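Task card 7
Instruction: Convert sequence to structure tokens.
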Amino acid sequence: VNLNFAEYNANLIKNKVLFMTGLGFRFNRYAFKSTRSVLSYNDTTIYNAPDSTRSFDKNYLNASYISAPLYIKIMPGKDPEKSFHISLGGVVSYRIGSRLKQKYVLNDQKFKDISRGHYHLNPFLFDASVRFGVGSFTAFANYNLNGLFEKGKGPEYFPFSAGLSLNF
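Output:
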């Protein structure tokens, strides 16, 4: 989920080419395929540790970021409310928090563990991004360029996201 609370457009060429930036929040949730893996970390690395005593109903890593999009936006039509538009650029994000959330049953008793930590997540994410749409509706795709975890301290994951946005 991305929520942009500030947006600024600077006219570059006759209201047809714009530089767009802003500020917002980004909330990512990463789910684990295995219902028996525990995400653990120490000073040097992050790893999956099998846990034979628990089977998780929910096993998520949540990360929150403050983000700034940077785009060149092309809008050939005359009316911005109805015109086709395409944007190319990127998003820079800074991690402001992360936590691991797990729900499981052990000996017929329900547990919910929430632990905060950095989990060797990269403090900054740099995403390449493309957006296209008409009027207020936009489709987007983002691809992470520098990896989710710090280099050499975890698996090499390069998240990809795609979806639809509604601009107010």
